[in-house]
Amino acid sequence: MNRFVSARSLSGVALSLAMALTPVFAQESAPSPSPSPGGGGGATAPSPSPGPTTPGGRGTSPMPRPGDQFPQDTRFPEIQRPIFLSGKVMLNDGNPPPEPVLIERVCNGQPRGEGYTDSKGRFSFQLGQNQTVLQDASVAGGIDPTFDRQSPFGGSRSGGMGTGRGDQISERDLIGCEIRAVLPGFRSDLVNLSGRRAFDNPDVGTIVLHRLANVEGLTISFTAMNAPKDAKKAFERGHKDLMKKPDKALAEYQKAVQIYPQYSSAWFEMGLVHQSQNRIPEAREAYAKALEADPKFINPYRQLALIELQEQQWQALADTTDRLVKLNPVDYADAYFYNSIANYYLKRYDAAERSARETVKLDTLSRIPKANQLLGEILIEKGDYSAAADSLKAYLKFLPAGHEDTANTTKRLRALEQVLGAREQAATP
């Protein structure tokens, strides 16, 4: 299935940008803010909640006293029964997706991956037991520009399938929840889960994916639909071997493209294996073959962007992400983010600003907080210190308590405010 190097358990791709930012207003009367390195604060696990206590603190005697009042969930705790769901995903032309599609549970606006469809578009899983689904932006975003200690604007986490917690989902947990299929370039039907019971029929029916009119590029390659049966079988064998035997999987993908040279999905998977094992020239070649077979196949562009970011090939990164967002302008906030970084270092500040603002606009779940920091730095370069200060303030709101970026960003913001104050004072008669 088309899960990216940053989202699978081959060998994760870690990106770093070892670059310093030079303040452009150092000549101003106010002190120059220092460059803002990327933060590296990890999330802190919450402390366990204390267990239930008996009324009046009288301990835990097995026999209640006359008149004792116990909460309902203490005497009769809710029985946690597994909840299973099954169904099918179809494209709006009546065909199943040519490759696996992610199924997400969305509760009160928060998505969580649950599983993938098979080769015929079918899915079946127990809710909450998502042990093989990556739970972060890379599910649909690939590039994961979160807080990264080594990069001024964030980088990519190491890959890691198997990050699902395996939570037990209760009937009560499904209030305000829906499931959907996730395929960039398509809008999914939604299935309401509120009121579903553990003993209900698990079959939720067919989820239809409707292609968006203004999107050309897709994360599925339609050349795969024309692949001969033997090529498809080799491709599927490759997927079965991929996690535990990547070299054997690579051999199966090679068989698939020998049978069907236009099999862009197989070329792409070959590139992923090479990239995960740091064989970058071979990965580039495989991605080029995939794009030669299907120029509107989004996935190879995204992996090439990772390589170009890692190697600081700013012009190549700008070109690749330009092509990507033209093919799909609605699904990839992270591609706009890296396009903005590339243009920033190429000193094309107008283009960098446009892409940074598009990142913030599309990032409705605020998964790329460093876009605000980047936008602030771009606006500093353009001399718009007031707007830059607003962007840095927005970035500070996302920083977790104790994050090392807080002090650096606050210092930079204060320097900006001093410059703005000095200008305002000078302009006052």
Structure explained in plain terms:
The chain has 429 residues and is α+β, with helices and mostly antiparallel strands. It has two domains: 128 residues, no CATH class; 207 residues, Serine Threonine Protein Phosphatase 5, Tetratricopeptide repeat, CATH 1.25.40.10. It is built from 13 helices and eight strands. The strands form two sheets. Strands 4-1-8-6 form a four-stranded mixed sheet, with no helix packed on it. A four-stranded antiparallel sheet has the order 3-2-5-7, with no helix packed on it. Helix 11 runs antiparallel to helix 12 and helix 12 packs antiparallel against helix 13. It is globular, with a radius of gyration of 25 Å.
The Rg value, from CA coordinates, equals 25 Å
CATH topology of the largest domain: Serine Threonine Protein Phosphatase 5, Tetratricopeptide repeat
Specify the structural class: alpha+beta
- Please give the CATH class of the largest domain: Mainly Alpha
Assign the CATH superfamily of the largest domain.
Tetratricopeptide repeat domain
List SSEs in N-to-C order.
HEEEEHEEEEHHHHHHHHHHH
Let me know the average pLDDT. Answer: 76
Largest sheet: 4 strands, mixed
Count of helix runs: 13
* Total domain units: 2
Question: Which CATH architecture of the largest domain is right?
Answer: Alpha Horseshoe
Distance between the termini: 67 Å
Beta-strand percent range: 5-15%
User: Tell me, what's the shape?
Assistant: globular
Helix content: 25-40%
Q: Write down how many β-strands occur, each being a DSSP E stretch of 2 or more residues.
A: 8
